[in-house]
Amino acid sequence: MTSRRQFIKGASVLTSAVTLPSLLELTRPEEESVDFSIARTDDELFALVRKQLLIPENRIYLNTGSLGPSPISVIDTVYKAMRQLEMNPVGENWGDLGKAMEAVRDTVASFINAKKEEILLTRNTTEGLSIISSCLELKKGDEILTTTQEHGGALTGMAFAEKTKGVIIKKIELPSPTDDIGDIIGRIQANITRKTKLIILSHVNTATGLVMPFAEVAKVTKPKGIVLVADGAQSAGLIKVDVKNMGVDAYATSGHKWLMGPKETGFLYLNKEFAPKIINVFSHSGFAAYSASSGTRNVATIIGLGAAIDLHQQIGVEKIYQRCLEIRNYCRTELEKIGGLKITSPTPDHLSCGILCFTLEKAVNREVFNKLREQGIIIKLLPGGNDLRISCHMFVSKGDVDRFIEAFRRLI
What we know:
Number of helices: 15
Shape: globular
Order of helices and strands: HHHEHHHEHEHEHEHEHEEHHEEHEEEH
Largest sheet: 7 strands, mixed
Strand content: 5-15%
CATH class of the largest domain: Alpha Beta
């Protein structure tokens, strides 16, 4: 048996062998809050946002679609909440910090035009979508309709329902690029049968950046009593989300992509009329941030999610969307000058956002991805083909795009 003295000696060796943050770093003074109102132009505004990030100045980060960088203000919110919590864990967890965590449900509801009682705080989009697929009453032979371009997180829940309930998953083939709303609706209608019970679609498609016209889709599904669910992983924080206008029964998203919130945060919207159909252990005791069935939560990160949403609302959701679209369109124009690729993202603005995807004709995507990474340019290597993805969030400048384009041109 290891003695206390041996344990302490071993711990000392471990500590000396591993580079740990200094005590000074752990207790650093708070960063000064940023007053975005001092910005005279949009360029100045988004330059201030860029300065809030810990990404080194010489690194071009074009992969928010995978994970977004949290601003210092969000990091500090989490940091302060953690320190406050650990000074009196029980008192704070079910006291002031617990109340602040619960208030995040109000923040989320306001952000997506829902009611607080329709919001369940989750860990990520996958968890939210899986709750629906696994808990909705479906029987053998019932059909779930989706597309061939969905993210694996959404497919996980559907595959579980297929295995445990015997449902049939039907996937619609969408063209790349998809530029016609009428074509989208026509393909959905053509694949609906009397057995179709559930349709799950990405609000913003992870593989193309297509903004799904949910309001038009809902006009098809509602009269038929088909449940309509939105995978919002790529939409919250990038485009405006109005669940009532979209006409969806459920919407799931993460806080750690375009919202730039703490990792392992998210939320699930369940329309109050649809919610009773989703019976699961996690929300059995209610939708409160903390309940008997949810168990203890990560108070600090959930509060940080609220801070991230507040930041987006402070800057302006529409302003962020327009900025992302502007930078994306600039990037698209510059890429088209190079050649050697096919852009698979939509052309019209009303179906587009800050995501730009393309297929390389001759160059190998993994080689290009690795060479760009060596130069401090971070993009997304899309699986299953020869595709790459660029995420143009509000902190990306035209100068960043120019550096990417120049490096990309040299590589191909």
